[in-house]
## 1
Amino acid sequence: MGAVSSARRRQIIRDAAAVSVATGAYGISFGAIAVTSGLDVWQACAASLLIFTGASQYALVGVLGSGGAPLSGALTGLLLGTRNTLYGLRLAPLLGLRGVRRLAGAHILIDESTAMSVNRESPEAARIGFVSTGVGIFVLWNLATLLGALAGDQLGDPRSYGLDAAVGAAFLALLWPRLTDWHNRLVALLAAALALSLVSLTPAGVPVLAASVVAIAMGILTRQEAS
């Protein structure tokens, strides 16, 4: 397809802004939990700047907060971050980023930026969704981390503000328009069922990783049937 129209560009950026606000605000929770788990303000901020994947960050501070070794926390976070590799395999040919842009893109390759770029009508539209969402969340997440770290335990339980529900609602809003045929509905149903069954049995982030495996398996089976 041709170039993205100005109206379409604005629509994608508006959607990205909404997702960025909902997700970025939850960085307040990470900042507060990081400080109460033993990190100082600058260490919490460095984690958001350098790691920048929520599940891995929460895994790290969770291990530290329970008295675990930093290496154990880092390895747990690395395990949960492996799903981003799957995202990269899908998005690399779609976005077509090269050189420094590819390196920068890898840093903002997260759940939300992936969701906002796949299934777009053109590579240009995919890049707009990816960059606007990734950069927006990166900026807001890091600002929110700083605020949460400064507030510390004075903030209370961030879930009481509904921030955890806001993130889920943003993902549901992205997913719903794509459930237009039986195949997508079946994949969503199986992935959700598996993720829900693992929530109480596995660390945070693992259910999402397992759900992505369902999507990949269904994609492989569909391709084999088509060929």
## 2
Amino acid sequence: MTKDLIIKHIDSLKNHTAINYSIKTKTEAFTEKLFYTLFDTNANLYKSMDQLEILFKEISIIACKKPEELCDSIWEKFMGTLPDVLDKLKQDANFILENDPASNDLQEIYLAYPGFYAIAIYRLSHELYLLDMPLFSRLMSEYAHRITGTDIHAGAQIDSPFFIDHATGIVIGETTHIDKYVKIYQGVTLGALSVSKSMKNNKRHPTVEKSVCIYANATILGGETVIGKNSIVGGNSWVTRSIPENSIVLNTTTTEVKIKEKEDR
């Protein structure tokens, strides 16, 4: 097959979709610029907001499926949410500082904690989700997923303060509800018990009440599953039913330790 025929064949296969890949790279640039604007002391807010508006509207041309006049007004609505989002993120950062003995100061958390970055991008993408910008919000959350290894759907409802430690491997589904003062460690999944397209508008993911701690690699599934407040879910636990308040959930698998026979050298 000649080069011309190959190109024509590829072109014919591409024509059934209308994907503008620039939206992905523009969203990543927007996400980084937004984080910088909110947290860098030296950021010129007026200049940065103007730059963000330009990027936002370039993305909206592709991502917004509403009439043009409605798309144009979304930036102002989104910008209006930023003070409240920043206030929540300050609460999150302080909660991390209070609870992680490895943390030294807020600067370290803002600059070096992947869990905080994942929470920050979640809170910002969540506002876009509420403004009915699903593709924009999903691209933001997937960028954070790639950077941090933490997959938080923009539709999840997560109160502040919230603490993610180590971050890698965490999955939080779209209809998850998480109350204040919850701590989650690496590898935790808050997911659906079963998957079917017909369940799209149903609550498919768990509810985690106030002051719960979920340790590494625990899996909690189901829209009717509620983890009662002040409970602890131990590492590697598998939970598919509700847990009462003040409970401790343990994985009962035992680990044996044996002493090796001494070898002569």
## 3
Amino acid sequence: MRYSDSVDAFITHLAQVRRLSPATVRAYRADLTDLGRTVDDPPLDDIDLETLREWLWRATQRGDARSTMARRAAAVRAFFGWARDAGIVAVDPSLRLVTPRRAKTLPVVASADGMRELLDAQRAAAAGGDPIALRDHAILEMLYAAGIRVSELCGVDVDELDLDRRTVRVLGKGAKERVVPFGAPAAEALGAHLTRARPVLQARTERTTPALFLGARGARIGPRTVYALVARALGPIVGAEHVGPHALRHSAATHLLDGGADLRAVQEILGHASLGTTQIYTHVSAERLTASYRLAHPRA
């Protein structure tokens, strides 16, 4: 089987069998397509370890980051592992592929006071009744209160929101559904959005949509709009030029742990498959505690 045909079959497997998110599927396709440009579509059996090493070496020459290299190596390992299991290749050439480890960087986290300042400012901006301001306030409250991913937020429909119980049902990675709680300030902002903002935005198009959050033209809101909103609102608070919705998720998790929440409860809220993924936030909390100690203790 030619390389390109194998990639198409693998991508179909990821989307239809493993049911990975569209963003993850696009990332796998992009990395495997990049390899395809290097090998010029040979039979899959012709790709060996040296071919893969050459491909990654060229990426280092271009100045690709270690995180990009690690992601690309993970993509080819998953691809050739699938090809071996499917009987397409007899030997998996990626088993001995070594790549630099990802740099250990802690996620960007806003302080609790910084989040209070941000959300108070958003509430004040929404007080004038502008539908976009009301929607944006509700989005920021939801991202921080529930700690959900931007893809999950954009996919939420109105009937998946329960304001009485203060919960929202979201579809996470691997098409796994979970119910996430949120607090009273978020419920208040969401109520105002539903009654005063969403009907106005919905009226801007003839098409109806069940989406909870709508764009300026009345269609379901897209991730780019949410990214731009978060960068504009959160960037000055954390002092970072490029900051996305995941920073609110990081902040929510860290503040939950700082407040005494159980690590496994935070794992359930975030929808992490592994507890190890959630444990990064214990390191964030430990670093914050250490920094406070060094500033405050006379013998630090």
